[in-house]
UniProtKB/TrEMBL annotation:
<dbReference type="Pfam" id="PF00293">
    <property type="entry name" value="NUDIX"/>
</dbReference>
<protein>
    <submittedName>
        <fullName>ADP-ribose pyrophosphatase</fullName>
    </submittedName>
</protein>
<dbReference type="GO" id="GO:0005829">
    <property type="term" value="C:cytosol"/>
</dbReference>
<keyword id="KW-0378">Hydrolase</keyword>
<dbReference type="GO" id="GO:0016787">
    <property type="term" value="F:hydrolase activity"/>
</dbReference>
<dbReference type="GO" id="GO:0019693">
    <property type="term" value="P:ribose phosphate metabolic process"/>
</dbReference>
<dbReference type="InterPro" id="IPR015797">
    <property type="entry name" value="NUDIX_hydrolase-like_dom_sf"/>
</dbReference>
<feature type="domain" description="Nudix hydrolase">
    <location>
        <begin position="40"/>
        <end position="170"/>
    </location>
</feature>
<dbReference type="InterPro" id="IPR000086">
    <property type="entry name" value="NUDIX_hydrolase_dom"/>
</dbReference>
<dbReference type="GO" id="GO:0006753">
    <property type="term" value="P:nucleoside phosphate metabolic process"/>
</dbReference>
Length: 180
């Protein structure tokens, strides 16, 4: 696989933000040529597939400015610096939905856009929910909480109200887990 590797010649920091950093890297290609890569650096994220006793998935509906529309997603959020992903997943679940859980299990992790970003999302599953009360969202977050059946999730995917990879992954996971 070494014949595929690009070697970094130079890195320039373009932007350092609250959520992402942007770098430009000059690279030496495997054939000796040179190119430039724009790379989004992200601290990573977590997402939670949370299922109620009656087999409904907890979802959150919120406006996504980058898309210019409201979409429905599984609870998720950015890792804080030095934060354990499992603890982050539990924190995000509670903040966004008002639920905690007795146990949570890691089921997968994946890169969101490996062509230009290093963000990796770790996905957890729980079906041992405990309702604690109201959400505790960030001051700039406005979220509705939903409990959806598999049929309702499929309908929202068709309408493109569920329109992100992590939530579509969750829908496939739930289908495999409960429709066997």
């Amino acid at each position: 696989m070494d014949h595929l590797i690009e070697k970094t010649i130079n890195t320039r920091d373009i932007y350092k933000g609250k959520i992402i950093d942007l770098q430009i890297e000059d690279v030496l290609l495997p054939d000796g040529g040179k190119s430039t890569r724009e790379i989004v650096r992200h601290p990573g994220a977590v997402a939670v597939i949370a299922v109620t006793e009656d087999k409904k998935a907890l979802m959150v509906r919120q406006y996504r400015k980058a898309l210019g529309k409201v979409i429905t997603e599984i609870p998720a959020g950015k890792l804080e610096k030095g934060e354990d992903p499992l603890e982050s997943a539990k924190r995000e679940l509670l903040e966004e939905t008002g639920y905690t859980c007795r146990e949570m299990k890691k089921i997968a992790s994946f890169y969101t856009s490996p062509g230009f970003a290093d963000e990796i999302i770790t996905v957890y599953f729980t079906d041992s929910l405990i309702y604690k009360g109201e959400q505790n969202t960030d001051e700039d977050e406005f979220i509705d909480v939903l409990e959806l059946t598999a049929a309702e999730i499929s309908e929202l995917i068709e309408k493109e109200e569920i329109h992100d990879a992590k939530t579509m992954y969750a829908a496939m996971y739930l289908q495999m887990k409960y429709d066997r």
